[in-house]
Amino acid sequence: MPRPAMDVTPGQVNANGIYSGTGLPQAYNGAGVAAGVFDSYYDFTHPAFRDANGNLRIKYYYDFHWPNTDGTMGHALESTSEIEAQQRSLYPYNGVHGTHVTGIMAASPVDGRYAGMAPGADIYLADFNSDRNQFENPDEHTSATAVLGFKYIFDRAEADGKPCVINFSS
Fold this sequence. Notes:
Layout: H1 9-12, H2 16-20, E1 34-39, E2 58-67, E3 73-77, H3 80-86, H4 97-106, E4 122-127, H5 132-135, H6 143-159, E5 164-168
Parallel strand pairs: 1-4, 1-5, 2-4
Antiparallel strand pairs: 2-3
């Protein structure tokens, strides 16, 4: 049966020494880094996306299938207030996948447990496709879409002066 495991995973992958700085010039937890995730469907209200003071750690969100009033598709939310107001991806097809993957990568501890691998990083998200019909259509999700999603995340991280690493899982 599935069960929460992020409370033990850092120890299993030897990340605890990285967090404490054992044998390193300093401790590392992702602070100062942009943790990018390119996936589908995010729940921005998840408590693991808030820091210890309750501030949202998601700094950027781009949705490729967000319909704009001028008929174009694709829209960025570039402030935490915009992201908080949206609460989640537009299309709930995949329900939790992007949220889950982002949690593994960069979740803040919840109740002192279940932290991701980089709990101090800022979170940058791209939503490639959350609509079921588009998700199942190979013409809608292409390598070009992936490259463009990476570019949007890297460009924003660069504008914010942060090194960036991206997880891509589809």
